Amino acid sequence: MKHNWKMGFVAGIMLLLPLVLATTTLTTANAANKTTTSKTAKKAKAKAKPKAKKHYLIVMGHGAGDPGARGNGTTEATFLRKHMLPQLRKYAKKVKGSTITFYNPKKNLVSDTLYHHKGSYKLNKKTTVIMFHLDAPAGHGGHVIIHKKHPTKRDRRLAKVIKKYVGLNRAYNGFSYRTNLRNCNVLRHRGIDYSLVESGFITNKNDVKHLKKHMAKIAKADIEAITNEKIK
Ligand SMILES: [Zn+2]
């Protein structure tokens, strides 16, 4: 059989052409892809660099028409806002490794949560909530209300502060694991980490005396205990 060499060659080239073109396109696409990937990786790296600081929300108990416990001529809401809040704010500003904000002291986290379905329902799940309260009706010393059976390291540090300046409530020896506090249960069910600090009894003359006398030191130590950062 006679073979037409020229026709075969041309046909061959024509058959190969799409393949060659396709390969070129693929290579270009690959190169483009690689560039995009490395750009994305660089972007992600740049974004991840300033690591998000841990956020703590400090809540002074009661307020907004709820005085809380009464004793020694004052109320829980007033004492916490008048004596403790300014000192906590002062030391919160000195912290570098974490961000500390305060729940609007004109508001009441418990009623915001339970009656208005806001408060604890609206908090970011990564936030850690530290609530300050004073105890009543009768007794001496403070304790930390915790949300797991065993206290965290932060809970232990907070209890140490109470022990040092006011003394611990002998009934709890530092910690009380409670599951019957409705606002706290909202936090618990949402997986939000928290500690509730009962700094002492508002009804106990000595507790209030010690709280007033050492308030600056207590506030500084509390901020250090919360953030695990030494303040100069
Ligand atoms: Zn209270």
From TrEMBL:
- One Pfam family it belongs to: Amidase_3
UniProt KW Signal keyword: yes
Q: Which residues form the MurNAc-LAA domain?
A: 58-228
GO molecular function annotation: N-acetylmuramoyl-L-alanine amidase activity
Swiss-Prot/TrEMBL GO biological process terms: peptidoglycan catabolic process
Where does the source fall among the domains of life? Bacteria
Gene Ontology cellular component terms for the protein in this record: outer membrane-bounded periplasmic space
Which first-to-last residue range defines the signal peptide? 1-22
Q: Which UniProt keywords apply?
A: Signal
What's the protein here called? Answer: N-acetylmuramoyl-L-alanine amidase
